[in-house]
Design brief:
By secondary structure, the protein is of the alpha/beta class. The protein contains 7 helices and 5 strands; from the N terminus they run H-E-E-H-H-E-H-E-H-E-H-H. It has helices spanning about 5-20, 45-50, 55-65, 80-90, 110-115, 125-135, 140-145, and strands at about 30-35, 35-40, 70-75, 95-100, 115-120. It has a 5-stranded mixed β-sheet with strand order 2-1-3-4-5. Helix 1 (about 5-20) runs parallel beside helix 6. The protein is globular. The N and C termini lie far apart (about 35 Å).
């Protein structure tokens, strides 16, 4: 992982840990513009009873309205699901940095096919946090990814 990405991936891990400590899923995200975090969030589906409150969605909601996203990078602790990947494409976010995709191989190809630069940094902290969560809460994880 490059030094440029390290602080933002660490923040994703911190947000994911916060979500898990609240009884939710450990997925965090930050939106960065010109080297500064302009929005951050974490999966709050359980906490808010909101089926679309994924980490990336919470992050974008917290970033607020923007005229464009051309100058942004979205960092996420876990590979994005189709809903979040679709939102990335819809908003024209040009670059996504994924901390880990071992526990859930999301939609990297979908993003790349639509011109999004995708980097996977394989962060051991995020991988282990999600692995532990899935092992301890399989039903909640399956609910999050709409699997039975």
């Amino acid at each position: 992982m490059t030094d440029m990405h390290a602080p933002f991936v660490t923040r994703c891990f911190e947000l994911a840990s916060k979500g898990m400590s609240e009884g939710g899923l450990p997925i965090g995200a930050v939106l960065v513009s010109k080297g500064h975090i302009i929005g951050e969030g974490y999966n709050r589906r359980v906490q808010q009873g909101d089926p679309i409150a994924h980490g990336e969605m919470d992050c974008l909601r917290n970033a607020g309205r923007r005229p464009h996203y051309r100058d942004t990078i979205l960092y996420t602790s876990l590979s994005p699901c189709m809903m979040c990947a679709g939102t990335i494409v819809q908003f024209g976010i040009p670059h996504v940095v994924i901390a880990e995709n071992r526990n859930f191989g999301g939609n990297e190809d979908f993003l790349r096919e639509r011109g999004v630069t995708v980097e996977i940094v394989d962060d051991a902290r995020c991988t282990e946090l999600m692995r532990r969560f899935i092992a301890d809460h399989p039903a909640l994880w399956n609910e999050d990814i709409a699997r039975e």
